[in-house]
Design goal:
With 252 residues, the chain is of the alpha+beta class. The chain has 5 helices and 13 strands. The termini are far apart.
Amino acid sequence: MIHFSRKMLITFTLSLLFPYNLFAAPDLSIVEGNTINANKFDFITLHAKTDGANVYWVVPGTNSNKLQQIPPDLLKNNTAAIFVPKEDGVYQVVCYSTKGDESSTPVIVTINVGQPGPGPGPGPGPGPGPGPTPDIDKSKMHVLVKYKPSSLTPAQQTILESQQFREYLNSHTVMGPDNKTHEWRIWDQSSNVSNESKLWQSLFTHNPSNNDYTVPYIIISNSNNPDDKPSFEGPIPTNINDLNALLKKYGG
């Protein structure tokens, strides 16, 4: 006589009642397609279309130093991800989703920055429109620049002393608690900040998540909470036009 365990009987019964796998790997596709063309400091918003419960986005290898991902906890849900390229080049983003113990087949998105990608074939019609505005409060922008005086080049010094740069900061960063000083700072990296607010202490001592710490270094936050991650961090752009473009992404 053949004996069946309780688990075997349940599995057999389910297979008769439901001939399809209830726990199959989730489907996954990227709304914007698998090839994206962009420029430096663009907001690149990707949306995953999936029946999975969780979505994960990964920038493989050392490219995470050059393709900055907006902290996921600043977004409303994990089906969307926002990336900001800091240099021209070709990057890849890997996306996958999970449902129960099953994982989807990874989808690779190629991002061409500052250079044309392969031309797409003729399509049935126009592609999807631009994604929603990133869930970042531009009215709460704080900007910190850390520098080392002995290593500043003349070009870098010109940028940091630029009237255009400082006028933008005064008109777009949030007003400080004293109602006189706007929330931006340009500090020597050896400065003593022990008497500053917790927010500025947190930004000043923040360790870059991508280990790409090259002064002068710019940190942009769109939160008044010292525990929140910065919206952007990286070496300051090498010319005033690129710097202005970067600031407008986070401050309007």
